[in-house]
TrEMBL record:
Entry's Gene Ontology molecular function annotations: imidazolonepropionase activity
Amidohydrolase-related domain segment(s): 70-408
Binding residue positions for N-formimidoyl-L-glutamate: 151, 323, 325
InterPro entries referenced in this protein's UniProt entry, alphabetically: Amidohydro-rel (IPR006680), HutI (IPR005920), Metal-dep_hydrolase_composite (IPR011059), Metal_Hydrolase (IPR032466)
Name recorded for this polypeptide: Imidazolonepropionase
Cofactor binding remark: Binds 1 zinc or iron ion per subunit.
Sequence positions that bind Fe(3+): 79, 81, 247, 321
E.C. number: 3.5.2.7
A matching Pfam family: Amidohydro_1
Pathway where this protein functions: Amino-acid degradation; L-histidine degradation into L-glutamate; N-formimidoyl-L-glutamate from L-histidine: step 3/3
SUPFAM superfamilies in the cross-refs: Composite domain of metallo-dependent hydrolases, Metallo-dependent hydrolases
Gene name for this UniProt entry: hutI
Source organism: Gaetbulibacter aestuarii
Compartments where found: Cytoplasm
Length: 411
């Protein structure tokens, strides 16, 4: 199948050669071509350039006219908990009445509440609920997604979640990466040391053995898992080929960033709090800091200090954290906009963070995240807009007209 998209008002994130990720000042540059064309052959980007070099339409099976519209690589959402059962709007109302996220969790709400619901939900029902969410985020421009387990908290329920992620991966054309997050919370009436031992000795070998995850995650946080627990779990995961992507510095700074970097984490995520020492360990590492502004927005907690991160020369990725407790939205357009409005990122930085850097944060930088020959043809065409800055400017709206995954328009 040969597809030509022509008369594109502006083609964004055009990179001749593939870059792994962008750091510091590089993030301010978003290469584009005005009045451009894009060619897709057999699921891949095979050519692009200015309209003056556009090939003849007659040579193509399908031709799209993108006059007045912008073309962007699809969003790469590198941190989600999209597979979950039910919702937690009661806790949302409790927070409005004054309870904190931590207080709700202490009362048995929070992650344990979602785990209870998920344990009592059939695999088929969980799949249907998750499938609807995945379809919805794809329609908003997400073309690659990482999904975590961690609402099971029994081996059986964790396996159920991971099998649902596997089914989504098989049923949908977008790239889906699975992360095992058994260490999301300590289950009720369980001693933490016993639980961590079980994760290490039994669950990790089983999950890796069945090829149900590529990454391993730990909620490294006061009241959840310590740095010592985190390191032990990451080392066990590594022995089974699971690379680390971890939750750190959401509410307290206990040394999770250093633990992640020390254990070659692909990403350290949240970072609503960030110490000078954390910035220092991230320098000269290959670990991607990931900000989750939807969570800061929803829980009214600090935003990840993006300016500090970028201005010290580090890279930054943006993701949704889509989950029922702290970020019940998988809308990457909102995330990009909020990063501009609340974190002082420029549209160029935010788009880079949500495309190429997001792709890196899930090991997809060679396949996705930029308009580069040989990458998958995952892109979205906007509605007619004046400029790409209009996208984050018009917060709460998305101006995605159509989404193409591997060159095919999704319905
Ligand atoms: N912080 C840990 N996990 C999720 C929220 C979990 C929940 O509240 O259900 C997060 O990334 O924010
Ligand atoms: Zn999360």
């Amino acid at each position: 199948m040969k597809l030509l998209v022509k008369n594109i008002k502006e083609l964004l994130q055009v990179r001749e050669t593939s870059t792994s990720f962008l750091s510091g000042k590089e993030m301010a540059e978003l290469p584009t071509i005005k009045n451009a064309f894009l060619v897709v052959e057999d699921e891949m980007i095979s050519n692009f350039g200015p309209m003056t070099d556009c090939p003849e339409s007659i040579d193509f099976d399908q031709v799209e006219d993108a006059s007045g519209k912008i073309v962007i690589p699809t969003w790469c959402d590198s941190h989600t908990h999209l597979v979950y059962a039910g919702n937690r709007e009661r806790e949302f109302v409790d927070r409005i009445h004054g309870l904190t996220y931590e207080e709700i969790a202490k009362k048995g709400g929070g992650i344990l509440n979602s785990a209870k619901t998920l344990q009592n939900t059939s695999e088929e029902d969980l799949y249907q609920q998750s499938k609807a969410r995945l379809k919805a985020v794809m329609a908003m421009g997400t073309g690659a997604i990482e999904i975590k387990s961690g609402y099971g908290l029994t081996l059986e329920a964790e396996l159920k979640m991971l099998r649902v992620i596997k089914r989504l991966k098989e049923a949908f054309p977008i790239s889906v990466k699975a992360t095992f997050l058994g260490a999301h919370a300590v289950p009720k009436n369980t001693d933490k040391e016993t639980y961590v031992k079980e994760l290490i000795e039994s669950w990790i070998p089983k999950i890796a053995g069945e090829n149900l995850a590529e990454y391993i995650d730990v909620f490294c946080e006061t009241g959840y898992f310590s740095v010592e627990d985190t390191e032990a779990i990451l080392k066990a995961g590594k022995a089974y080929g699971l690379k680390a992507k971890i939750h750190v510095n959401q509410f307290t700074t206990i040394g999770g960033v250093a633990a992640g970097v020390k254990n070659d984490a692909l990403s350290v995520d949240h970072l609503e709090l960030l110490l000078e020492a954390d910035i220092q360990v991230l320098q000269n590492s290959r670990t991607m800091p990931v900000a989750l502004p939807g969570c800061s927005y929803f829980l009214s907690i600090p935003y990840t200090p993006a300016r500090k991160i970028i201005d010290t020369g580090l890279p930054l990725a943006l993701a949704t954290d889509y989950n029922p407790g702290s970020a019940p939205s998988g809308n990457m357009n909102f995330v990009v906009s909020t990063a501009c409005v609340k974190m002082g990122m420029t549209p160029e930085e935010a788009i880079n963070a949500a495309t190429i850097n997001g792709a890196y944060a899930m090991g997809l930088e060679n396949q996705l995240g930029s308009i580069t020959k040989g990458k998958f043809a995952n892109f979205m065409i906007t509605e007619p807009v004046n400029s790409y800055s209009f996208l984050p400017y018009s917060f709460g709206e998305d101006h995605v007209d159509s989404v193409y995954i591997k060159g095919h328009k999704i319905e």
